Give the backbone structure.
Amino acid sequence: MKLAIVTACPNGMVTSVLCARLLDAAAQRQGWSTSVEVVDVQHPERQLSAATIEAAEWVLLVTSTPVDMQRFVGKRVFRSTPAQALQDVEAVLRRGAEEAQVQVAEAAPAKSTPRIVAITACPTGVAHTFMAAEALQQTAKRLGYDLQVETQGSVGARTPLSPEAIRDADVVLLAADIEVATERFAGKKIYRCGTGIALKQSEATLNKALAEAKQESAASGGAAKTEKTGVYKHLLTGVSFMLPMVVAGGLLIALSFVFGIHAFEEKGTLAAALKTVGDQAFMLMVPLLAGYIAYSIADRPGLAPGMIGGLLASTLGAGFIGGIFAGFLAGYCVKFISRAVRLPQSLEALKPILIIPLLASLFTGLAMIYLVGPPVAQMLTGLTDFLSTMGTTNAVLLGILLGGMMCVDLGGPINKAAYAFSVGLLAAQSGAPMAATMAAGMVPPIGMGIATLLARRKFAQTEREAGKAALILGMCFISEGAIPFAAKDPLRVIPASIAGGALTGALSMYFGCKLMAPHGGLFVMLIPNAINHALLYLFAIVAGSLLTAVVYALIKLPEAVELTVAPVKV
């Protein structure tokens, strides 16, 4: 008897290979002639040929994932699962020989509306994530497309995509500024873009996804991105996973100061316990940063060497800069090893669990200890010394730079670069840049909200409503609240925002404000000692917001056409 065995599992590795070998051995013990295929979307050349399938008397299909059944039309097919096959291979073969049925061609489906599944994600998981999802959903409804969106925000995945929705989708749209897991989309066509593009050009994004989506492999996925975009995305992925540690650690340390600035020095007190927990959270920041940079580059095999390199960076005093180096070193090292080291198929399963972690961790660790760690530690020490001892003029100039950058593109690359820089310095115990950055980030939406009050007649009713929402978003440090205004009138909104943000950043640095937490907006001020000079800090925010509001109210042209603004769900 000639038998064709086809196995497939979601990860395409251990389970499918094991099932194939056990079934092959059992069939040969019975004297059957076998042909075996382990489904691998990255290696379509390993498929059984049409002639081989035609020559087989029946096909045993052992799978837990969807496969192309058109290949087996006209052949006797018996379907089973990996769990059943691993439990009793002899029984599966016996049942298959008796119960296999002829596979008939599936009727061509009637032309229907395009089906799209999408994921939106941004580094902080707050504004762009949900605003992009809202824009895509409204546009899809208008165009008549069937769209399901999963938002991977700060509290995890909301409205997660079901396996059925993924299976039935024509394309997968990944509107993400960070790396997202794609294992469940194996075999599907994928289109990638940023949340900013999806938010501002939602119709074009959906149409491009339908027209340009491509099936990705391990090789093509990385090649599709330019190096610049890739590096930036990897860095933001690391920052996004580091942020919860920064927030938790900073706020816990701030809470310990509620009992007095030096209260934590007395052992056994609640203040000391809070300070200890906060310090431990801070210790994990750099390993997480490095680990998830490596994860973004090389997927899960990059986590271990990345985190080891990040921990060494912390130990050696290289801080967040060393963590960035460690993450990229580990990630690209893992990528190189996975491509360069070729093993027999029987040993391929050992590569991600033994060979890659060992060699990549060894290389990254030694490189950090002997090459990267010492000079980067000196660089970081010099940077922190400069920040702590810089004069008023340098502080003001740095505040102007960071404040202006936060207002240039409202959540875009320049905004995120300034934010990531400040978060990194916060990890190195320098809170002044973080204070200037967050204060300036609140200015554009608050300024737009105040402008709608100062010059009501120049704004349409929908703009005035958007201004109220922008005020609330601005107080929460969500710069994207100003996007509806910037998208409609960028040549006036952006300069007015930059002017206000630069003023706020300059004042914050001039007053010597230092912030312990990287997010939360005005509500962080409710925690005693989370920010020093709280009243001066509030004054800086108010001054910058008023400047933006007044400038924009003066230069704005009267509104003639109503602006349609979609509600924002955060």
The first helix runs from residue 14 to 29. Residues 14 and 188 are 21 Å apart (CA to CA). Confidence is low (pLDDT under 50) at residues 218-229, 561-570.
